[in-house]
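hi support,

uploading two proteins for the ticket. first:
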Amino acid sequence: MRAFAQAIDLYDDPERIDAYLRHHREIWPEVVEGLLRIGIRGMRIWRGGTRLFMLVETDDDFDPARYQDYAKDPRTAEWDALMRSFQTPAPFAKSGEWWARMEEIFDLAGACTTAKGISSL
């Protein structure tokens, strides 16, 4: 299993943020099916103010370049366009990047295997 972390911002508008949260509480089944179909096995999103942080767990052979393949279906493309209407790239996003990829800098499980006297998790 592989993991990817990404960030994006929401527009700073309480009504739009509430609508975005409401949509995620009532996610369309086609979106869930589309994400599973492309090899995503887990997805969690956290919010701090207007910043969103997403952790995606995938099959080992998952290619991040094909992430948007989930939106090839008309219904999932509609969801994708709707969600983008609430979002704006984070200030540190690279040119052309929507959700900004984040670099992993620490893994507790990995640290436990290399630290003396600490059993692994």
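and the second one:
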Amino acid sequence: MNGSVLDTNIITKLLDQDLAAISLVQKIDNLFTSIVVVGELYFAAANSSKREANFNKIQEALSCMEIIQITDAVCMSYAEIKLELKRKGKPIPDNDIWIAACACVHGFSIATFDHHFSEISRLELLA
């Protein structure tokens, strides 16, 4: 299946009606995100002054995509990616490794504005 995992920054910019994010997402046939992204989005909403409104906006956005769960295969991919980055001396945030692992296991690209994902050799980026 052809698809792309949306990173947190893409979904956040979509919620803000950012034209670059909208243009990028319009090029994707099948939208996915990681359960890790969902956690990051919910944290941002919980930490905001407009909690309920932001939770509602997030839930509406998430209804348009499938959420990838953490499985044994994703855990193995996480370990391989983290080891690759350690050997390169190019660490990235752990949550981003989990998001990348979700994309890699399913053979999806990742839509992001974070360039550090380019350190992961087997990951195709849409930016």
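thanks. also noticed: The first helix runs from residue 8 to 15.
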